[in-house]
Amino acid sequence: MKLLVGLGNPGAEYALHRHNIGFMALDRIAERHRLAPWRKKFSALVTEGDIGGERALLVKPQTYMNESGRSVQEAAHFHKVALADIVVLHDELDLAPAKLRVKTGGGNAGHNGLRSISAHMGNEYVRVRLGIGHPGAKELVHNWVLGNFAKADAVWLDAILDAIAVSAPRLVDGKFERFQTDVAQALTPDKSDAKIASAPSEPKAKQSAVRHPAGERGNKQQNAIAENLRKWMEARKKSE
């Protein structure tokens, strides 16, 4: 079993904050793979199910960011999940928006959620770093991460969340480099449609047995997102 942890702060007032992109990613994964409804356990909201034929437990700690490790430790201990099988999705100031990197271990770069998990569990877990960009000055960081995404961010944010959800089977299977590559290619406008069509979302047996109308709607939505992303990138180039 893989333990997928999304970092964020609980409560409606924080829902659209940049600091909550980890929560957003897990919500999109759960929706895409039609997992069970979220329930309260381990001082968190959790759901579980098969993702690409592998079992995964998704955890959104409800302890606030600086106590995230307590929730992760409870869930990992109960399910006997090894540290190497814990994958944490979190916001990353040092990456540009719409960029993603995967690494194991390393520093916590002042991130209170990572610091808490490392203090409770050790440092050698997998991190999926989701770029939110840097405001440019240290004194602006607090309000930046605890501020809502701008309306202009909606296109790239929606695109990367969908790409993460589509490619989640790679993440659960431990194919972290392939996951990173698939997400990057899905965000390249001229390759989006092909990647979306080929990326695994369910075991082959289930794919042949179930034809869910949501899949067709999802493909149409993905095509629209890819087109919107292309337009957004063109507009950004013109403004530079």
Search tags:
single chain, alpha/beta, Rossmann fold, 9 helices
Structure at a glance:
This protein is of the alpha/beta class and 240 residues long. The chain is built from 9 helices and 7 strands; from the N terminus they run βαβββαββαβαααααα.
Give a written overview of the molecule.
With 240 residues, the chain is of the alpha/beta class. It has one domain (2-239): Peptidyl-tRNA hydrolase (Rossmann fold), CATH 3.40.50. The protein has 9 helices and 7 strands. The protein has helices spanning 21-32, 68-79, 112-121, 141-145, 154-172, 176-186, 192-198, 204-209, 213-239, and strands spanning 2-6, 39-41, 44-51, 54-61, 86-92, 100-104, 126-131. The protein has a 7-stranded mixed beta sheet, with helices on both faces. The longest helix has 27 residues, at 213-239. The chain is globular. The protein starts with a strand and ends with a helix. The model is unreliable at 191-199 and 201-218 (pLDDT under 50).
